[in-house]
Amino acid sequence: MSISSQAASTLFSKELKLLLSLMNMPSGEKRINICNENLKDIDWDELLVLTRHHRVYPNVYEKLRQTDDERIPSYVIRQMQKDYQRNTFSMLHLSSEMGSIAKQFDETGIRVLVLKGPVLADDLYGDVSLRTCSDLDILIPIDNLMQVEEMLIELGYVKEEVYKTILGDWKWRHHHITYKHPQKGIKLEIHWRLGPGPGKEPTFNELWESKRMCSITKHPVYYLGREDLFIFLATHGARHGWSRLRWLVDIDRILRQDLAHDRLTYQLKKYNQTHIAAQAIILAVKLLQTPLTSELESLTMAKRGEHLAEDAYFYIYQKVNLHTDPVPDHISKYHKRHLFSLMTYRQKVLFILSFLYPYPEDAETLKLPQPLHILYFPLRPLLWTWRKTKKHVLS
User: Fold this and answer.
1) Of 224, 240, 268, at which residue does a domain stop?
2) Other C-beta atoms within 10 Å of 394: how many?
3) Strand-pair category, 135-139 with 186-191
4) Can you give the pLDDT at residue 69?
5) Domain final position from 193, 224, 255
6) Which of 74, 111, 151, 282 is the most buried (most CB within 10 A)?
7) How does pLDDT run across 96-149, given as a tens digit for each residue?
8) What percent of the chain lies above the pLDDT cut of 90?
9) Where does residue 196 fall: left (phi above 0), alpha (psi -120 to 50 degrees), or beta otherwise?
10) Which Pfam families match (predicted)?
11) Tens of pLDDT, residues 297-351
12) How many CB atoms lie within 10 A of CB 331?
């Protein structure tokens, strides 16, 4: 497989290409391996914007502070140093809260798996300061959800969002709920699934059996096994279009670890995610020069892997931000198509069938007593048609 990509070379700006060169610099390198001609017209402010958008400034600063390359303006390095230091304080703050919450939950018998955050930085980078993180993501058994909410409220957390729901659809249409601590300024996402449904994924008990322990805090914190973590990171990055290179750097780091490829291949096939893994590996090889072993190359042969990887360039070169509303209409439409293209045939069928399951809007259109909510199933096509017709008339 060629590490270079024609799509990337034609779509990416010179600043983005420089950013990738900086990210791929070997540790201890004194000069950027790029000719002077390519540095002459660099917009250094744009480079800073890119490091922040892609959340890779700790990684890039770590490389730059080892260099003595006079071609890089001093203010660029100073600004990255400030961003790096700010992130270090934030990660230490999150680490402390993560340990505290894990201790609180453990004392009440609630099992917790931390999905990202400081444990990920420690495992993949060996230093919590080398990865950015804005919140804590914690996976719990769905049966403990109400108990966890009561505990978080006692600890001063406030629920940021309340899902409208009907007939228990929140359990599979959503996969997490967000809480925020007003005083500490910490955002906490409580997950009961790794990703939104409908779709098959490991149970909490299965993930718990292969858990690992992180000891960066006084109280032990548990997180995903290596193969489970790779699959989670690959599916998470794919769901967001790899719009931040930070997620791809995570893939590069974990692929350089000692993965149990037999187990990984089995898990990917079991949960129909081999094409997702192929997309992640292809992007990591092409953009971050991840070493391609024979085991990894066999995974990249999955159908649609190469095509899905090419689709991701749309997000990367345009600095797409899916987390801030309003998302531009053309990007929103592209993203919906991309999410659908990630699904297997079975998942697409389930997704289409899920539109027949009642939505909270149906209950708002026609209010029925709780015991009669089952009637929303046969009524849904009529209620959907009524809403669309009414909207069209009003417009």
Assistant:
1) 224
2) 6
3) parallel
4) 79
5) 224
6) 282
7) 999 999 999 999 999 999 999 999 999 999 999 999 998 999 999 999 999 999
8) 80
9) beta
10) NTP_transf_5 (PF14907)
11) 999 998 899 999 999 999 999 999 998 889 999 999 999 999 999 999 999 999 9
12) 18
What b-and-e string marks burial along 94-115, b requiring 16 or more CB atoms within 10 Å of the CB? bbebbbebbebbeeeebbbbbb
pLDDT band at 68 (very low <50, low <70, confident <90, very high): confident
Residue numbers of the domain that contains 186: 91-224
Is residue 312 domain-resident?
A: no
Q: What is the H or E stretch that residue 172 is in?
A: helix 170-173
Greatest C-alpha distance within the chain:
73
Calpha distance 366→383 (Å, rounded):
8
Residue 386 lies in a domain: yes
Residues contacting residue 179 through CB under 8 Å, at least 6 positions apart: 152, 157, 158, 159, 160, 187, 188, 189, 190
Q: The tokens of 100 are what?
A: 């505290």
Report how far residue 137's alpha carbon sits from residue 98's, in angstroms, rounded to the nearest whole number: 10
Q: Which two tokens stand for residue 140?
A: 């719990």
Tell me, yes or no, whether 174 lies in a domain. yes
pLDDT tens sequence across 12-58? 999 999 999 999 988 777 777 665 556 778 999 999 999 999 999 99
- Token pair, residue 254, equals 């974990």
Note whether residue 126 is domain-resident: yes
- The CATH number assigned to the domain holding 117 equals 3.30.460.40
How many angstroms separate the CA atoms of 115 and 113, rounded?
6
Q: Which structure tokens are listed for 80?
A: 């990255």
The CA distance from 274 to 236, in Å, is 14
